[in-house]
Amino acid sequence: MTTIRRTIDINVENAETREPTVFARLDDSYHEMEVKMRLRRPGLVVESIEARMLRGTDALCELALSPIQGLIGLSLGKGFRRKVIEQVGGTRGCTHMTNLILQISECSIIFSSDSIDEDEAEFAALSRDPRWQMREKKAFWLSRVPELRDACVGYEAFCRDGGGAVVS
């Protein structure tokens, strides 16, 4: 029996600054690739992106790199997933590179929201209050990281229903 293992490593540096940088690497039996994405606040806008295909299944894999520059200027907020798939998905790019870029965006939003020291202290203090339910937690993070709006079914329902759809 053959075992295939895939490792994805994503690191966000300077997450608390106006220009966080994300480094991502995918490595498995057939592929090895890296992406470096520099973001700009507000809006977590892609300021620059560099991608390298270190190992692929075909020499044509290198062709997947040039369309990635079209992501510069996009915000990681609502609609980013669709735009990435349109720009670098399918026959325009590489499935694995596309998925790595999408994972970068998810981690960047999460790490950016978790990196603000004063917010962490306030969030920790409020979280200890037993009356502070999930609804308040989501409202807290949306006020600090508007890119979370409609980022997933939980935040979409929360925004659509004005916080009423959240179960604590």
Structure report:
This protein has helices at about 80-90, 95-115, 115-125, 135-145, 155-160; strands at about 5-15, 20-25, 30-40, 45-55. The chain is an alpha+beta fold and about 170 residues long. It folds into two domains: about 5-115, Enolase-like, domain 1; about 115-160, no CATH class. The protein has a four-stranded antiparallel sheet, covered by helices on one side. The longest helix has 20 residues, at about 95-115. The model is unreliable at about 165-168 (pLDDT under 50).
Shape: elongated
Which architecture of the largest domain does the CATH hierarchy give at level 2? 2-Layer Sandwich
Taking the sheet with the most strands, its summary is: 4 strands, antiparallel
Number of domains: 2
The CATH class of the largest domain turns out to be: Alpha Beta
CATH topology of the largest domain: Enolase-like, domain 1
β-sheet strand percentage:
15-25%
Helix content: 25-40%
Beta strands, count? 4
